[in-house]
Amino acid sequence: MNSSGITTIVPTYFESGLPLERFVKCLTSLDAQLVKPDIVIITDDSKDETLRNQYLRVLMDFSLNFSCIRNNEKRGMGSNSNNGLANVKTEYVHILHSDDLLNSNTAYQVMLETIKTNNQRWVFAAGEIGGKIVIPALDDLLLVGQNSLGGPSGLFSKSEIYLRYDPNLKMMVDVEHYFRMIQSFGPPCIIEEPLISYGVGNWQVQRGISDGDVRREIQYLLSKSNTYLEHIKRADKSKLDPLFQIRLQKDLRTIREQGSIRTLVTISILGVKRLLASFVRKLRGTK
Questions:
Q1: What domains does the chain contain, in order, with CATH numbers?
Q2: Pairing between strand 92-95 and 39-44?
Q3: pLDDT tens for residues 45-70?
Q4: Which of 13, 81, 93, 179 has a 20 to 30 Å separation from 43 between CA atoms?
Q5: C-alpha 211 chain-centroid distance
């Protein structure tokens, strides 16, 4: 079999309650690819040895080349993905979360051709969520919770530029990562074909995140770099609904006048809540 130059990383945390059949569907979609990955790295945060073995036993049913990494402790999605990235030796890398799957057996073929034909270093593919197609769009409001691109499984990249995730983040881990990728390498090439099917369930880490967790993450981001605050100040707010625009402009004015980040933390939490509400409406098929 010819080398595709692709490493697929599947971060897992089986103790989250992820159904075994969902994990099997994820791997089945990889095994069905016309252009298969050279290696699939399973990087796992689970402590329960019995449960872990139950899930990993299904690997024998596939023709894929697997490498399994067990982390010494649960450190979250960012660190789990980074552990896989540290072991990539191929030209391209894709992180496919264990509750997501590739929608087409030509997904990797399309991703590779898009990168090569357009002389790109990274691409972002459209996805399907609960029967609804979500096409990635570039939006400068990523840092107030407006994730217009999609889940991390939509990102396919040359491995040399795939930046590490910030291990201190949970809810904002993906949008902060996209922001740094765009700042460092320019925007991704958008693939409008829905190549990813995103899983939705109670096992997802976002469902256990409180307002306090989000507040701490935003405070951390603002303390991490002044670039984040300056970017939000310059962002085009016209895409937000009118009431949200008014609140955001008022709070940014307060920041300029008082130098306070407290109000920005508040409106950023509102942005994350709006994102989650919009996500639920999409699943219900409403606007």
A1: 6-206 (3.90.550.10)
A2: unpaired
A3: 777 777 777 878 889 999 999 998 88
A4: 179
A5: 20
Beta strands in 34-76 (DSSP E): 39-44, 66-70
21: its two tokens: 């059949």
CA angle (199, 269, 253) in 5-degree steps: 140
Helices 226-234 and 173-185, axial angle in degrees (round to 10): 80
**CB within 8 A of 68, min separation 6: which ones?**
41, 42, 43, 44, 56, 59
Half-sphere exposure of 267 (CA within 13 A, CB side): 26
Q: Which amino acid would we find at residue 98?
A: S
Prediction pTM value: 0.80
Angle, in degrees to the nearest 10, between helices 242-258 and 226-234 = 130
| Cβ neighbours for 238, distance < 8 A, ≥ 6 positions apart | 245
Pairing of strands 92-95, 155-158: antiparallel
Longest dimension (CA), the chain: 63
β partners of residue 189 = 123
